[in-house]
Design a protein that fits this description.
Layout: H1 15-30, E1 36-41, E2 44-52, H2 74-86, H3 100-115, H4 118-123, H5 128-131, H6 144-154
Antiparallel strand pairs: 1-2
Length: 155
């Protein structure tokens, strides 16, 4: 699974970084996070896409650190995103105070935008049928059978 960037940047990625991200990805598939799914692009292990579909008990049922910390795993970064989105204090840069209704509207607009994006459809193809369901239909991406199907499709 050695996938180097199509256009290497100023520094050449090390095999250690590639192994680390590959291991992180395998761990995400084996032990999925609650409320979030992530995959690297097929041609670049350094470019990731994620889908946050709501935390249990939250309304929904870019992380900008000043300095990169290489000890962070992909899972820890994704959980920081989820935490940031569920924060109701709004005392941080990027916080946005909105009503629950506005958040639900924005979440639907985001879903619709992503469903029109060919790269999103390629990376999350196993979720497209669920995401295309009518708003009135209930679906649960945290369902164990759904997570098993997602994991099986990415192994």
């Amino acid at each position: 699974m050695d996938r180097l960037p199509a256009k290497p940047g100023p520094s050449v990625p090390t095999q250690t970084a590639i192994r680390r991200l590959t291991a992180d990805y395998k761990n995400l598939i084996a032990d999925p996070l609650p409320s979030v799914i992530a995959h690297p692009t097929p041609d670049n292990i350094f470019k990731w896409h994620y889908l946050i579909y709501g935390s249990p008990g939250s309304l929904y049922e870019d992380f900008h650190p000043e300095k990169w910390n290489p000890s962070w795993t992909v899972s820890s970064i994704l959980m920081a995103f989820v935490s940031f989105m569920n924060d109701k204090e709004y005392n941080h840069a990027g916080g946005m105070k909105t009503t629950d209704q506005e958040k639900q509207k924005l979440a639907k607009e985001s879903r619709d935008f992503n469903l029109r994006n060919p790269k999103f459809r390629e990376i999350f193809e196993e979720l497209i049928p669920l995401l295309e369901m009518d708003d009135d239909e209930d679906f649960d991406l945290s369902d164990e059978d759904t997570n098993d199907a997602i994991s099986d499709s990415k192994e």
